[in-house]
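My main concern about presentation is that the manuscript never shows what a single data entry looks like. In essence, backbone conformation is discretised, so a fold becomes a row of integers matching the chain in length. An entry of this sort, consisting of the sequence and the corresponding backbone structure tokens, reads as follows:
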Amino acid sequence: MEFVCIETKTFEDMCIALELLKKKVETLSQRHLPKRLDKWLDNQEVCAILRISPRTLQSLRSTGALSYTQIDRRIYYQEKDVMKLVGITGYRHKSRKELEK
């Protein structure tokens, strides 16, 4: 292993430069936080949230009631769109247990 000796002043200057770089990186990352992507849900998660069958979910896609994105053969939905569908239309099927009550 090789050791390198540097002057104290040089070491302190390097520490200051690293601290400034750290602050710049933190500032830039904070600036871009709101631009992060929303959470995406797959078919199974949406069916569980809405309490519907995959076929009903397909009907919602076909009619345009629920927007989606397809990557290869997988279909994804933005969480905000699913929650909007629940909130605005109250579209949440009741389970059999709830219907029996």
In short: The radius of gyration is 26 Å. The longest helix spans residues 8-31. The mean pLDDT is 84.
